[in-house]
Specification:
single chain, alpha/beta, four-stranded antiparallel beta sheet, 10 helices, 10 strands, 38% helix
Amino acid sequence: MQHKGLLELTSVSRHFGGLAALEDVDMLVSQGQIVGLIGPNGAGKTTTINNITGLDHPTSGQIYFNSQPIHKASPHVITNMGIARTYQNIRLFGDMTAYENLLIGQHKRGEASLFESIFMLPRHFSQERELKNRATELLERFNLADVADVKASNLPYGDQRRLEIARALATNPQLLLLDEPTAGMNPTETRAVGEQILQLRDEGITVLVIEHDMSLIHQVCDEVYVLNFGRMITHGTPDEIRQNEMVIEAYLGTDEGN
């Protein structure tokens, strides 16, 4: 079977007892796209992300990444294949500084062997320098350099959100899954995050974003998929989705500012 996209979900269902959280979900995310996934609360958006990243597994159906099946894979295998995510509920290491969170986020990139690390051989030092440089670069990119030494739990909410995106990027993913990245942000902060997401696409990273803020969806997305009660009801460009009667009824309401 030929797989067309970087990420492909085919007839994915997830049942919990008699409840269908997802039912026959199809989705295609092509390389270099920013794709939105929207829907009302309880529609199955986070369940979809959990099934893509191995925190949960479909009851039936298939998920492919780079044409490789991942629907039965564990989270660390999927991370190593090149998928990173953020969470709706922030999951930073609260007792670690922003800088330390970014260092630990790069743990899978380490190539020095245990032997080289124990005996402080040259590759250990060059690798350590590379990881520190990458952490510093990410802090600067997300305007967090001034709070590098502040514990994550003491950071303002917007900074915590940006730090979580930065930590996901520390793994050098091909595909970045963002679960409500601008929740709790004001319009100015939201637009700034949108600009960061567009820059990621320009750098070759594919992005799947779950978001309630439709201004962000319209700012960044090439295509939008809409879930309702676990079923994918439509997909299209942001403008097509904005005008779709099923979407208006299910999620957006009659007021487009909603």
